[in-house]
Structures are given as structure tokens and as C-alpha cells.
Predict the structure.
Amino acid sequence: MNRVIALIVAAGKGERAGSGVPKQFRKLAGKTVVAHAYDRLAAHPAIDGVLVVGDEEPLRAALGDRPLLGIAPGGATRRLSVGAGLDAIEALGGTGIVLIHDAARPFVPPAVIDRLLAALETSPGAVPALPVADTLAQHGALLGDVVDRDALVRVQTPQAFRFDDIMTSHRAWTADREPTDDAQMARAAGYEVTLVAGDPMLEKITRPEDFAMAEARYGQRSFRTGTGFDVHRLVEGEKLWLGGVPIPHAKGLAGHSDADVALHALTDAILGAIAEGDIGTHFPPGDPQWRGVPSSRFVEHAAALVEQHGGRIEHVDLTIICEAPKIGPYRDAMRARIAELLRLAPGRISVKATTTERLGFTGRGEGIAAQAAATISLYEDFR
Ligand code: CTP
Ligand code: MG
């Protein structure tokens, strides 16, 4: 039975990393450290499920609606936390293979998982390891003798084991020393542990400066652009809203909500940049609850989605297409209102207008059209 379960231990206090909030719940490149670890493991096709060890409430908050096999309460040491996770997996019926991983190692390269699983075909355990680059020496108050670094490796996680073997190893552990990983327990129980190539991406976040380092290495943002287009009919007896601003005019726009065609195009542009459907997906036009509501609600909803994805709106550019009213006198009021809705500086909001030389429906004053572009920056591993 080669079911593979990933077990993430996230019950530590993160004392060496400082800052009050345990490191696994701090945000890095737009999401919590434990969510990064989860996403990298869960995305691997060989992994069938993820179980997490730690405090339920902050874990649920950090992981949102990501599916879990369970959350097991942590123990006083890493060994006991892993043990609690293994017991929880056993209670679920056990598994063929378990990958035990530190939440504090957020970036798990899929190739490392491939190497571990390949090694397990002939070995009861496998761990990723890296050579030591620095000179190593013993010390007291003064520098002592150099240690041969060629004989040493730095051992990382995830560590892969046949489930029954690591279970036996944990139960058999009697040494009064606390092991810092599971491979030590497997070896003490007599199981061979194979070394596969580790990865610098798997560096553990341990000290405060590790956050800045990880952010600089993995917090690269990429840019995405979305576009939006909308048209509404001009009719008598409606109030005219454009770009979030009321405008005195003989006619107003008819349609969904307050029919602010400019904010609708803008909402679609923002949703487009994060590939989250369109305004109708989120606010179906047939749904009576959106009748007459201010379109600012839609813009705010789209901006909140960007924020949920760890993204940032960099710039929006709106063009309103109509013969009348004249947009110029209201341009700055629209920019100020949109800036307020998106919580951006007005310098990042462009509002333009054009006529269509009296041609077409806009030229005849039958309706107003608007188009928008939104530029958003997102962290590289956003979906
Ligand atoms: N861990 C755990 N239960 C413990 C101790 C540690 O689940 N009682 C987990 C941590 O959450 C971390 C991993 O084991 O993901 C590696 O441990 P470490 O880096 O030492 O984390 P902390 O113990 O949280 O940090 P510190 O030792 O600085 O307090
Ligand atoms: Mg610790």
C-alpha cells in the first residue's frame, strides 16, 4: 500500500526567531510560512493527503480552507509532536509512506520529493542533505580544532519513511537525548536511511534574519494585467453615477446596481488580473440583492480578493467613452474616490475620457461605455 501522507509539524514556539508570533504563522511572500509548506507538499502528485500537528485555532486561520486529513495537538518537543502526528495517521488506518516535514521550511522543491520517494523503493528511510561549505571547528571560549567537513552533511526535511518502520522507531526511542529529527530515531532502531540531494530552498527559518533572507530570495513578484469593458444604456429618470461620483445630467444609466459603467469595467479589470471570473460571477445581475447597490461594493470586493491572494494593485487606467457629460470636471473627484476604494495613492489611478466623434451608440448619446486596465503584482507562486 503506497499511500503517501505528508505530516507537517507546526507546534513549536519559534523562540529563536523572536517576534512573539510563532514563525510558522508569520507571513512570508504574501502567505503564512505553514501555508507555503502545505501548498508545496499538497501540489505534489504523489502526495495523497496532509496532516498537520499544532494548535488548531491558529492553524485553521493560517491554512484557511485547505483540505486536511486532520490536525493533531503538538507535544513539548519536536519528537513528541511528530509522535502525535504518527498516532493520528495510525488512527486514520495508517499509510504506506510518510513524509515528515518542518513547517519552518516553507519552500519544498518537488524534485526533492521525487528523489525521496525514489529512494524509498529500496530503503526504509530517506533524507535530503547538503554538503557543508564553511570551515567547521570545535570551540570553547577560543577556537578549537578544525573538523573534517567532507565527512559531514546538513540534514533537512522532508524526511521519508515507510510508515510502519518510523512508527516502530518512535516507540522504541529511549535515549535521554532529544533527537532533532526522525532519521536519528530510525537509525537508532536499526533502519538504514539513504541520503538524497537536498536543496538550499529547504533552508529552515530559525532566526529573525532568516525571514528577510527568505523574503529576498523567494518574495519575487510578477506582474499581471487585466482588462474590463462595459456598456450601459442612458435613460431618463435615473441618477448618473460614473467612476463612483454622482454627476448632474439629464439622463442616467440603467442596469445592474447603480449602473456605474466605469466602476464595472474597473472591477472586471481587477478580477481579470487575478483570473477570478467577472463581475457577474461574483454579483449575478439577476440577483435582486444587487439592485440599486453602489458599485463601490464591487470594486472593494475585487480589491479584497487581490489582497487575499497576497497581491497588490499597482495601477489602474480607466477610459470613459461618451459624448456627454463632459468628464474633465469630474476627473479628479473620480480619481480620489477610486483611490479611496482601492486604498491607493491617486497617482496610481488614471481616468481618461473620449468621444466617438458622434459615431455609434455612444455618439448618439444612447449609452456610455467604459474600458479599464488594472496592473497587479503577485508573488511568483500564486497558483
Ligand atoms: N516543532 C513542533 N513541536 C515542538 C517543537 C518544534 O512541532 N514541540 C516543529 C516546529 O514548529 C518546526 C519544526 O518542529 O516546524 C522544527 O523545529 P524548530 O525549528 O526548532 O522550531 P521551534 O521549536 O518552533 O523553534 P525554536 O527552537 O527556536 O523555539
Ligand atoms: Mg525547537
